[in-house]
Structure formats: structure tokens, C-alpha cells
Amino acid sequence: MQVLNPTTEAELGEMVAAAHAADAPLEIAGQGSKADWGRAVALPTRLCLAGLAGIRDYAPAELVLTAGAGTSLRDIRRAVASEGQHLAFEPPDLGPLFGKAPDDSTIGGVIATNLSGSRRPFAGAARDFFLGFRAVNGRGELFKAGGKVVKNVTGYDLPKLLAGSFGTLGAMAEVTLKIVPAPETSLSLVLIGQDLVAAQAAMTAALGSNADPTGAVYLPDGMAGHHPSLAGHVGAGSATVLRLEGSAASIAYRRGELERICAGPSMYLDHHESTAFWIECGALQALLPMRDAAIWLLSVPPAGGADVVLALRRLLPDCRYMMDWGGGRIWLAVPGTAPDAHGSAIRGVLVDGGHATLIRAGQQQRGGDHVFQPEAPIDLLRRLRRSFDPKCLFNRGRLHSEL
Amino acid sequence: MPPPDQAALAAAPRFAAALREALGPAGVITDPVALRPYESDGLTAYRQVPLAVALPRSTAEVAAALRIAHESGIKVVPRGSGTSLSGGALPLADGLLLGLGKLNRILEIDLPNRCAVVQPGVTNLAISHAVAADGYYYAPDPSSQIACSIGGNVAENSGGVHCLKYGLTTNNLLGLEIVLITGEVLRIGGRHLDAGLYDILGLMTGSEGLLGVVTEVTVRLLKKPETARAMMAGFASSEAAGAAVAAIIGAGIIPAGMEMMDRPAIHAAEDFVHAGYPLEAEALLIVELDGPKVEVDDLIARVGAIVASHGGSGLRVSESEAERLTIWAGRKAAFPAVGRISPDYYCMDGTIPRGRLPEVLRRMTQLSAQYGLRVANVFHAGDGNLHPLILYDANKPGELEAAEAFGSDILRLCVEVGGVLTGEHGVGVEKRDLMPTMFGEVDLNQQQRVKCAFDADLLLNPGKVFPTLRRCAELGAMHVRGGQLPHPDLPRF
Ligand SMILES: Cc1cc2nc3c(=O)[nH]c(=O)nc-3n(C[C@H](O)[C@H](O)[C@@H](O)COP(=O)(O)OP(=O)(O)OC[C@H]3O[C@@H](n4cnc5c(N)ncnc54)[C@H](O)[C@@H]3O)c2cc1C
Ligand SMILES: Cc1cc2nc3c(=O)[nH]c(=O)nc-3n(C[C@H](O)[C@H](O)[C@H](O)COP(=O)(O)OP(=O)(O)OC[C@H]3O[C@@H](n4cnc5c(N)ncnc54)[C@H](O)[C@@H]3O)c2cc1C
Fold this sequence. Notes:
The structure holds two protein chains of two kinds.
Chain A: E1 2-4, H1 9-21, E2 27-29, E3 45-48, E4 55-59, E5 64-68, H2 73-81, E6 85-86, H3 107-112, H4 120-123, E7 130-136, E8 142-146, H5 158-162, E9 171-178, E10 180-181, E11 185-192, H6 196-207, E12 215-219, E13 239-246, H7 248-261, E14 266-269, H8 271-282, E15 294-299, H9 305-315, E16 320-324, E17 329-334, H10 343-348, E18 355-360, H11 378-388
Parallel strand pairs in A: 1-3, 2-3
Antiparallel strand pairs in A: 4-5, 5-9, 6-10, 7-8, 7-9, 11-13, 11-14, 12-13, 15-17, 15-18, 16-17
Chain B: H1 6-23, E1 28-29, H2 32-35, E2 52-54, H3 59-72, E3 75-79, E4 95-99, E5 106-110, E6 115-118, H4 124-132, E7 136-137, H5 150-156, H6 163-166, E8 173-179, E9 185-189, H7 200-204, E10 213-220, E11 222-223, E12 227-235, H8 238-250, E13 257-262, H9 263-273, E14 283-291, H10 293-309, E15 313-317, H11 321-332, H12 334-341, E16 344-347, H13 357-371, E17 375-380, E18 385-392, H14 399-416, H15 435-438, H16 441-454, H17 472-475
Parallel strand pairs in B: 2-4, 3-4
Antiparallel strand pairs in B: 1-2, 5-6, 6-10, 7-11, 8-9, 8-10, 12-14, 12-15, 13-14, 13-17, 16-18, 17-18
Helix pairs in contact in B: 1-3, 8-10, 9-12, 13-14
């Protein structure tokens, strides 16, 4: 495989223009070390954007940061932490899930996958913090959209469209993000030994209360113990974990609100332990032992999370799961070699809406169009895709056979 | 606007008859007198009576109306409540105005999933009212919220004083039903978060009625904060007030609302509502904090200290809900208050990096002298969104044109200092011709190609947002720059 490593926007533009002229498809990569995502399709040339790196402008008081799209997430985290700020959408580190080194994503890769962590329902997704970009489209043209201020409605909101587009609409050279103050401190309540239905009820009640949690996850029996931060506390039992963030005074009050709603055995994780737990949670610590299973990511109406899980367990008794987002996000590990990794069965369960994406699976399970579940008709998506990349050069076939 | 299409005008009677057949006689207006009320939106300087008005009562009727228009080659302008301040709902002489006002039902309130499903004609405030008894609300709160429709909010990606903390419309939506110009109905999202692939929900939001017609909206509901308290203080300069704002954010505090007014706005508001605003101040800062009482009390003390250390004087903190509302009364009434001191005013809406505020205000004062027109500023200080109100008298020859030229200069200034043309009101017709100050030709062409993916014949709300209408076929062509690729040493194929 040929690898192209542009180090300037102009070079990036020329490389894509040349690919356009030669009708040569390109794999668009951040770090370039992860070729496993999406449908298993091999492309001859990789365009690696890690060379477009560096923080260009960071004005903490304006809540705005502009960086090369190839800047590592690590560098951005470090820069904003030094100003007491953070990326509120809490991008998770999925490296370990793919047997890769932790912590080596680029910010472009994070945005292109719209990858968000446990705080998503409360603070927003990557897309909600993505203010503007400069990118090269599939014609080799450098274009920009959005802006560098936190409030802007000038023109179409193309940043929303590029977020989660998996590199198929543009190769991003530069991104501008909204950065916000990090909470002063945090505390997590762990409810020990709840069954799925009780945990769902507790999470739904907590999310509708003035406790104002910013994390609500359920790790069933046998799964919670995989978390170093919980081991020794929960044994083989389950854990429902609810996070509170803010000032100490505020947390002291809101914890009382949580205790009013939640009965049964419990314990607290202090700020330090809580921070460690939620990082582990983002890295899917509980699922890591399921090395060979296919991993699905479901987004569903949150209050119905437990019902979806119950239906899935009836269909796929061997599957393991964890629930995040108060029931709205289900991570599912499905053993076996079914060619579609049981995609149609899983989607058949989503009667109240939602979608399922195949995050990890062997090559032979990622051949078909079941990997992603687009919500709009494919011909509209194809027209949209072509409006940016008329020859479908970028990541051709990786999302869908027709994209 | 380009001259009306004669063929469309000639086809009008047949078109209206087809519409009547689909929507019933009460659903279509063609009588010139009855068309009058639709001739403008909130930007009243622009007026145009439409070819016809259709008032569908269901998604099926919206789809039918669009299909008929598409087949007849007739343009369509969607309209919610007509409060747009950028002329987004300005009709076309050769186009159908599609009023969504009859789609005004709240379809479902789903508290366990903290969302509501509503039709597009439901007003913004009606949603919050419907769930208030249960302790919930819909967060984005444009000042026009009694009147503006949620469909219009989606189309404009509207904000409000609370969007610093709670986000704009786009951050508070879960799902949409959309009808494309062909009559095809799409359902995007639902009660779950984030898209399975391309974020059509995000793209539709703020697309100003150019991509599709919104026929159903699923909004997120938030739990009402237990307490909200407001404080206000006067400052001797806008620099000092701006420094206080930066220090509050620098201290890690994101208030529920943070608003600034300049001297002319303070005077106009105080004369109107007698809220006790400091008339000697050059700038007034209003900060609202919300959340649990302990948290709010703590933050009020911290923000109060920051304000005082930055020269804020006459600090007043609300001790009751009535006092909180009094502090807000002048700000909320700023537009009508300015309306009292001037026959007409023109409301602008640029965003700037907040740190550039003193410079922008200074240059605005110079422009005010140059144009001989007064300007009053209200300002969403937390997020840098300026609302300069230019005072003029439309009855004086040339003043409207001067006000518009002054407004354009202000927006150019916003872009020059690193900001944008519009923070929440949209481009519409008003700022259309300024788009090239912010975007190059390639940028605009890319946006117009997105339009082509939805509406290849450019029938939905044409003439808005883009300065030049480019036909889709024309946009498909490649520009070859001299037929040569530079840097022959770079790896190629
Ligand atoms: C469905 C799915 C599958 C995943 N599969 C894997 C996997 O197999 N291995 C793994 O380690 N992680 C995977 N992840 C995790 C995710 O890719 C990483 O966490 C991401 O943040 C890594 O960043 P990166 O820089 O390495 O990007 P990459 O892994 O190189 O790329 C991720 C995606 O972003 C696009 N992209 C990257 N940079 C840009 C840019 N500048 N402009 C435009 N598009 C860009 C790529 O085309 C690709 O679609 C997956 C995530 C999802 C949601
Ligand atoms: C006094 C006053 C105060 C205001 N304050 C604020 C404020 O604080 N913040 C703010 O953001 N805005 C404010 N506005 C502007 C305006 O209220 C908003 O833009 C609002 O969202 C417009 O809603 P509407 O229903 O009146 O839409 P309309 O004016 O009818 O239409 C606006 C645009 O949306 C399109 N549209 C409408 N409905 C649909 C639909 N169902 N599907 C597709 N397209 C549609 C139209 O084609 C048009 O382009 C204010 C306006 C006034 C008059």
C-alpha cells in the first residue's frame, strides 16, 4: 500500500486533486494505524493526515481552540487541562478494544467518527462542540465551513455533516472546537447488585431528577468486576454507576437527591476513583476480555434500554452487554461467526427507533452493508456524498457498497 | 430577487386548482387582499405578495403541495410564524408560500425519555408551557418565543439568552420529519441520540428552509432548574464589563445567561420599564445563574466578587422571583424600548470573539457618526453575539438605505475581527450579498452542491442565503487551474 503524508493544506489539496485526475480511491486516516473500521474493503493508497498537526490558536476565555486535524487527542487534552478546561463530550479511548496502544487518536479521527463518551446525553456529542473546519473535498478543492466563534448560523452547518462522516465527505485539515470549563470535582454513586430492570428504573429516575447526573452506566453481573476501580467492591455482582460533577457544595446537595431516589447497597467513588472509573468505562474495560466477539454499538430511546437488552438476550443468549447514557447506549459483544454478526436480528429488536453500528468484527463479518445503519434513504446519502466527492474517492465502499 | 418567471405566473391558475383539489378550498389562498398579511416576515423593510398561499393540515398535505409545486416547476417558500429577522420567509411573486401554522399540535410528551414530539407550527413557548407542571422545559428561548414556531426555530437554528449554557436549537433536537421538494417524506432520528451515519438532522437545522420542509420535531426536554437568580451591575466602560465577562468564564463559570447593554440601550430600556438600571453607566451587565440553591448562592457570591473587582458598581442581586424578572425586564423589552425612541430600528446579529468587543464598539461609534444614525447595543456577552440596533426613520428619504449600509459595515467588521455574519437570525435575503465577505467561491459552491443533493431544481426558498444562484449542472464542472499541477515531486499515482 502506498501512503501519502501531506504536511500542508496545499500538499493535501494537490494530492487529492491528483487522485481525482487519476480516479484513484484514497483511504483517509488519522494516525494511519487503524485500518479495521467499517466494511472490509482494501484501498490501494492511504492518505494519512497526522502530519497536519499542531494547536494553532487557543483562547480559553473565548472557549475556542483551533488545531490541525492531525493533532493528537493527547496534546489537545493536555493543553486544555492546563487552563482548567476540557472536551466536554469526553472522547473515549477505543485503542485497547482494537488491541492497539491507548491514547493515540487524532482530533480529526475523533470528529470524523463523532465519538463521544458517557457525558454525551448531558453535555453533547463531538458534533455539538465542532464549530468549524478547513478540508479538502473529493475534487481536491480546499474549502471551509462554520466559524471560529461559539455561536454561528452563517450558511449550512457543514461541521455537523462532517462529524460522523468517517472521512467520506472531506479530508479535514484543520478543526475548530468549543472547549468549556472542566467541573471542579466529581463523585460517583455505585449501586451494587441491581438487576437490569431495577438499574434501568434507577437511571431513568436519576436522569429525571434534580440530582443532574452527568453519567449513568450499568455493568451487569460478572462485568463490573473487570473494572480495576470497582474490583474488590462489587465482586461478581453488577454495578449501576451515577456520576455527579460540579462544585463541592453542589455535589453535596445533589448526592442527597440521588440517595432519595436510589435504595439498596451502595458505595461512593471519590473524585480520584470516579475519574479513573469513567476513563475505564470509555475504554470499554468490561468488554475487553471478550477478545473475539463482534462489538456492536446501539443508540436507543434511553428509558427503553433494558427492554432492548432483554429482547437481545432472548435472541442471542451468549451476548454480553453494558448500558451507558442511562440506557440510551448499549454496547453489545456477540460471539460467533455469523456473516452479518447477527446484525439483522439486532436491528429487528429496535422497534422503538434507534440504530446499531458494528464497531469491531473479523474481516469476514464486515463484508456486507450491515456495518452501519443509515437513517436516511441511501440515494439521498449518495447524492450528498457525491456533492462533496463526485467520484467517491474517499474511503470508497467503507460505509456502504453504494457510498 | 430576480424578475418573476412569466411561465410560473401563467401557470398559476392551473397550479392553484391542483392545490385546491389536494388541500381543499380552505387550504389555498389566492385572493389578493387575503394574500396581503403574508407579504413580509419580521424584516418588514422587504415586502412581496406571494403567488399563492397554501395552509396544509397534515404531512400528507405538505407532501401533496410540494409534489404539485415540483411537478409544475413552481418555487416554494416555507413559513412558520413569520418572525424571521433576516427575511427568510419573504415570499416570491412567482412562488407558493407554504404556511405551516395549521400544523400546531403537540403530538406526544414522553417524560421518561425527556422529549416531546410536536408539529412545526407549535410555538416555542407552548412546548415549555405544556410540560411546566411536570417540572420540565424546552431550553432554547428566543425573545420571540411567544410567537415563533418550532419549525422556524429549526430552520433558523435559533438561540436565546440561555444558549450559552444550554445550546442553540441544534443542540436540543432528537428527531425530525422532513418533506423534500419532491414530496418524499423522511424521518430522521427519534428519541435516541446521534445519527447512524450522516447527520441529516444537524444539516437540516439552520438550513433556512432551503433543503426541506419540517413537518414534525422531537425536542429534548430539560428538568427546570430548582433556582435561578439574576444580578446586575453598571460599568464605567465596555472594556471593564468585557473584562468581567472574561474573568467569569476564566473562573470556570458558565452562567445560564450573561447579557450586556450599552448606554443608549440602558437609557431606552430604563425609560420604558423602570427596572432601576444605572443611567450613569456606560455598560450594564446582567448575569443569571441557575441550579440547586446552594450552588446558585455560591456562584452568585463568586460572580459578585469578580464583578466588583472589575469595577462593577451598584451591584443588585435578585432575592425573589419578582426581583429576578425586574432585572430582566429591561433587557427583554430592549427592542420595543428602542422602538419608542425611534420611528424605526434595524436589528443586526453578528458574532465576534468576545475579546474584540471594545474595538468593535469603538469602530461602531465612528460608523454611527459617519452615517449620522444612532445605534444601541444589546449583546449576548457570554458567546459574543452582538445585536446592534440601528435607529432610523423610514419616512426620511435615504435613511433606510443608510441604515442598511451601516448594518452591512458592522457585519463586515464582525468578520474582519474573526467573527461571523450571523449568530442566530440567519442569512435570509438580508445578509445574502455579504456571504462573500466570509466565504470564498469554493466554500459557497460546496454549500450550493449540498443544496443540489436535496433540491436539484432549486425550487425551495431560492434567493435566500446564497448571493448568486448557480444551477446544479454548472456546479458539477471542475475548474482546471492552468491545466498544471504544481510540485511535481510530490507522490502521485
Ligand atoms: C464504527 C467505528 C469503528 C471503529 N473502528 C476502529 C478500529 O478498527 N480501530 C481502532 O483503533 N479504532 C476504531 N474506532 C475508534 C476510532 O476510530 C478512534 O477512536 C478514532 O478516534 C481514532 O482516531 P484516528 O486518528 O486514529 O483515526 P482513524 O482511526 O485513522 O480514522 C477514523 C475515521 O476517521 C476518519 N478520519 C481520520 N482523520 C480524518 C481527517 N483528518 N479528516 C477526515 N476524516 C478523518 C477516517 O477516515 C476514519 O473513517 C472505531 C470507531 C467507530 C465509531
Ligand atoms: C422581536 C423578535 C425577537 C427575536 N428574538 C430572537 C432571539 O432571541 N433569538 C433568535 O434566534 N431569533 C430571534 N428572533 C428571530 C425569529 O423569531 C427566529 O428566527 C424564529 O426561529 C423564526 O421562527 P418563525 O416561526 O417565525 O419562522 P419564519 O419567520 O416564518 O421563517 C423563518 C425561516 O424558516 C423557514 N421555515 C419556517 N418554518 C419552516 C418549516 N416548518 N420547515 C422548513 N423551513 C421553515 C422559512 O422559510 C424561513 O427561511 C426574533 C424575532 C423577533 C421579531
